[in-house]
Amino acid sequence: MAKPKPDTQLQIDLPDKKYFTIGEVAELCSLKSHVLRYWEQVFPQLEPSKRSGRRYYQRNDVELILEIRSLLHDQGFTIPGAKARLAKNRVNPNSADLPEEKRSVLEQMQTIRNEIKEFRNYINQRY
Questions:
Q1: Among 41, 59, 77, 98, which has the highest number of CB atoms less than 10 A from its own CB?
Q2: Can you state the angle between helices 22-29 and 59-69, rounded to 10 degrees?
Q3: Could you tell me whether strands 19-21 and 49-51 are parallel, antiparallel, or unpaired per DSSP bridges?
Q4: Same domain, residue pair 46 and 85
Q5: In this model, does residue 52 exceed pLDDT 60?
Q6: Alpha-carbon span 53 to 119, nearest angstrom
Q7: Are residues 78 and 95 in the same domain?
Q8: In which domain, by residue range, is 1 found?
Q9: pLDDT, tens digit, 9 for 90 and up, residues 3-24
């Protein structure tokens, strides 16, 4: 049986729910809530939604936190090293390795993501 990669994200069983509070995530990931708030500032990929001043993490956010925790605590990465590793793992839509069709789809997804972020910021400022 193959040994799992050391940066495997899901080392715990996450409850089957859509949103997690910062307290739940802190408990699930064995971290303090102030560490999670700091990581939000340091790692741009980590963006929980905020409503009424409360943070709500989705499953992919929790998986990212577990990956960051593994990089920093288990694998001995520094914060800049972990940031570089996470950035390297992201797909670059301008990569020459990608076929044109996939590149186009990734560019469209990035555009949609940016539009959603802008809309979310607009809603947060309005309400």
A1: 77
A2: 40
A3: unpaired
A4: yes
A5: yes
A6: 18
A7: no
A8: 1-90
A9: 334 433 445 677 778 899 999 9
Is 60 exceeded by the pLDDT of residue 93? no
- For residue 107, what pLDDT is reported? 81
Tokens of residue 79, six digits: 């914060």
Query: What is the token pair recorded at 126?
Result: 């309005």
Distance CA 80, CA 36 (A): 16
CA dist 32 → 23, 65, 69, 82, 93 (Å): 8, 12, 12, 19, 35
pTM: 0.62
Cα-based distances in Å from 115 to 27, 56, 110, 120? 33, 20, 9, 9
d(Cα 5, Cα 8) in Å, to the nearest integer?
5
**Same-domain check for residues 44 and 33:** yes
DSSP 49: E
d(CA 92, CA 2): 29
Mean pLDDT of the chain: 82
Residue that has been written with the tokens 């943070």 in this structure: 55
Region at 76 (left for phi over 0; alpha for psi -120 to 50; beta for the rest) = left
